[in-house]
Amino acid sequence: MTDQKPTTDYTSDEMMTVAAARALRDGAVCFVGIGLPSTAANLARRTHAENLVLIYESGTIGAKPDRLPLSIGDGVLADTAVSVVGVPEIFNYWLQPGRIDVGFLGAAQLDRFGNINTTVIGGDYRNPGVRLPGAGGAPEIAASCREVVVVVRQTERAFVERVDFVTSFGFGRGPGEREKLGLTGAGPQLVITDLGVLRPDPRTRELVLTQLHPGVEVATVRERTGWDLKLADDLGRTEPPTDRELAVLRSLKH
Amino acid sequence: MATIAPLAEAVAHVVRDGDTVAFEGFTHLIPFAAGHEVIRQGRRDLTLVRMTPDVLYDQLIGAGCARKLVFSWGGNPGVGSLHRFRDAVQHGWPRPLELEEHSHAGMANRYVAAASGLPFAVLRGYTGTDLPDQTANIASVTCPFTGEVLTAVAALSLDAAVVHAQRADRHGNVQLWGITGVQKEAVLAATRSLVTVEEIVDELEPRPGAVVLPSWVVDYVAEAPGGAHPSYAHDYSVRDNDFYVAWDEISRDRDKFAQWLESVA
Prior knowledge:
The structure holds 2 protein chains of 2 kinds.
Chain A: H1 12-22, E1 29-32, H2 36-46, E2 53-56, E3 60-61, H3 75-80, E4 83-84, H4 87-95, E5 102-105, E6 109-111, E7 116-117, E8 120-124, E9 127-131, H5 138-144, E10 147-151, E11 159-160, H6 177-181, E12 188-192, E13 196-200, E14 207-212, H7 218-223, E15 231-237, H8 243-252
Parallel strand pairs in A: 1-2, 1-5, 5-10, 6-11, 10-12, 14-15
Antiparallel strand pairs in A: 2-3, 3-4, 6-7, 8-9, 12-13, 13-14
Helix pairs in contact in A: 1-2, 2-8
Chain B: E1 3-4, H1 7-14, E2 20-23, H2 32-40, E3 46-50, H3 55-62, E4 66-71, H4 83-91, E5 98-101, H5 104-115, E6 120-123, H6 131-134, E7 138-142, E8 149-154, E9 158-169, E10 174-176, H7 183-188, E11 190-201, E12 211-213, E13 220-223, H8 241-252, H9 254-264
Parallel strand pairs in B: 1-13, 2-3, 2-9, 3-4, 4-5, 9-11, 11-13
Antiparallel strand pairs in B: 6-8, 7-8, 9-10, 10-12
Helix pairs in contact in B: 1-2, 2-3, 3-4, 8-9
C-alpha cells in the first residue's frame, strides 16, 4: 500500500484487479492464468510484490514481462523467464508436488462451495446450452496449489447455488470433502469480484461476503448472488485504489 | 532419416483421411501452414488432437476436416471463444463433432505415456471433477507400493504428428526453442511425423534450452517460412495478436468464415 491519496475515478473492474493484486504477498510463487489474473499478478509485481514469482502454464518460470501478454505463450514470457520448461514438466514437476503458493483462476460459474465450471452451461454435457473452452490447467491448479484465488465478475448467472459441471473442485458440498479426496491444497481461500471479497467459512466451507468494495451496497451483492449469501460478522470495506496502483495498472494496458 | 520435401507433398504423405493427428505448439510455433495444406487437400474424418485447440483447429473444424476433437482447452487465447468449434458442438455445423475432453495435465501425461511406449500415465489429477464421468480414457489406479489411489490416463498414440520449428539441417535434424510445449512428446507419440521449419540451414548452431529432434525420429521436413503465422516462431517472428482479435469476427459468421476459407484454397 502506498501513502498516496485515493482517487474516486476508477472502474469496478479496476477495483477488482487492484484487490486481486493486493492479495499476492511479496515472494509468493504464483501460477497465473491469462486475462485478469495475469494483469493482477503483474500489477502486484510492480507495486508491493517485486519478488513475486510468476509461472505460466506454457512452461515459463519466473517471467517478468514488461508489457501484458495477450496469451499465456507470448514470446515476452520466454524472453524474461528464469527458466522455460516443457508442458509435461510444468504440471508434473512444478505444480503437482505442491511447489506453488497461489493459483489464480477465473470462472464462468462459481458455486457457494467454491466449485468452478468452465466446461458447459445448460442442457447436458453431450448437448449443452453453451459450450465453454473447458478445463485447461484449472483442475490440477485448484487441487495442488497451496491456495486458490478466484477472480470473477459478480453476476447472478455466474454465482450459482450449484455449478452445472464441476471443472475444478472447490469444497464439493461442504466440509471434509477435500480431505477425503486427498487433495493437498487448501482450495479457494479468496474470491475477488467487482463488488467485494468472499471467503470460505472455516466451519461450513460456504463462501461468505467478507468485504465490500467502496460504494457497493450489500443488497447489490445479494441481488447478484444465486444463493442466500451470508455476511461475515466483521464485514470490511476495501481501500479504494491508490493513484499509484491505478497509474501502474493503466500503464500495463498500453 | 527424414525426407526433406515440399509442404504439399509432405502433408500428403503424413496426414491421411481418418487419422488421429496432433498439430501441436503451445501458443508458440503452431503449424498453421501445414494445417491450411490439410484443408486444401480436403482431408476428412480426422480425429484432431491438441491441448489448446485455438484458431487453427477452429479453421479445420469449420472446413469440415474433423470428426472428433481430443483436447483440454478450446478457446481463442486472450480473446474469447472459438465460434466454429461452438457451432460444430452446439449445432453440428458443418458436421457433428465428437469431443474427448481432458485437463492440460492429463493431456500432457497422455503424450508422455505414448512417447515412453507405456499404455498409461499416472498423475494426481481430475480429482473431484465431473470430467472422468465423460471421458473413457481417465480411470483410477492403486499404487502397488503405497496403496494410494491415483489417476491413470491412457496413452495418446497418434497416427500422425505435425509441428513447426525454427530450423532443420540438410539431414533433417530439427531444432526448436523458446516455449517448446509438448512438441517433442507429440512427435515421439506418432507413427508418422512432419516438421515444418522457418529455414533449412547447413549446420544447427547450439541454442540455450533448445529441443533437438534427431532426423531418424522425423519422417518429413518441409520448409515453410512464416508457417506459424498468426502464432510465432521465437527469434523469427512475433505473435500477430491483431489477427487473433480479428478472427473473432470472421469465426462468428458462417458466411464470413466461408469467404476466409476461399482465401486458403
